[in-house]
Amino acid sequence: xxxxxxxxxxxxxxxxxxxxxxxxxxxxxxxxxxxxxxxxxxxxxxxxxxxxxxxxxxxxxxxxxxxxxxxxxxxxxxxxxxxxxxxxxxxxxxxxxxxxxxxxxxxxxxxxxxxxxxxxxxxxxxxxxxxxxxxxxxxxxxxxxxxxxxxxxxxxxxxxxxxxxxxxxxxxxxxxxxxxxxxxxxxxxxxxxxxxxxxxxxxxxxxxxx
Length: 210
Known about the structure:
Keywords: Signal. By secondary structure, the chain is α+β, with helices and mostly antiparallel strands. It is built from two helices and eleven strands; from the N terminus they run αβββαββββββββ. Strand 2 and strand 3 (about 80-95) form a beta hairpin.
């Protein structure tokens, strides 16, 4: 009787081939799902990266008064990182009489001219900021390139330049704050600056019109 391969061997071979084919197809399907997931995740990561770049995209630039910019904000008592839309709205002359009325008149009254810088802030991030100190990073440079000194009023509120920060700055909230600067007589303000988060060396600036 001739030797023939057992039927079980052929059956097993076919079964093994079918299993291998099934595993290969399953592997391709899983790989496809993983690729889709990775692509989806990559899209999310790319979107987040673009948002992060847009957030601090105006660092080092000089904008026009009234032109908003979005920045990464890192401050406050809870040290949360947030996102703000910030706008330098106006720079106008104040008077020592207004400061005196508020009990905030400086000692160098004869050598300085007060200026009021008004800023607007909007919380466009995903977290509330507790004691955010929104106005603290606001600065003013004069035409000689010097950073002018802010008038520290503490709890004193200058009626013509209200600048008390909110205790809590909720998501979507918007507030307008004013800050007093003392500019030496005969020199004019030139640029409003705002620097916070990771851009303290590259502040956003707004050109002051005269």
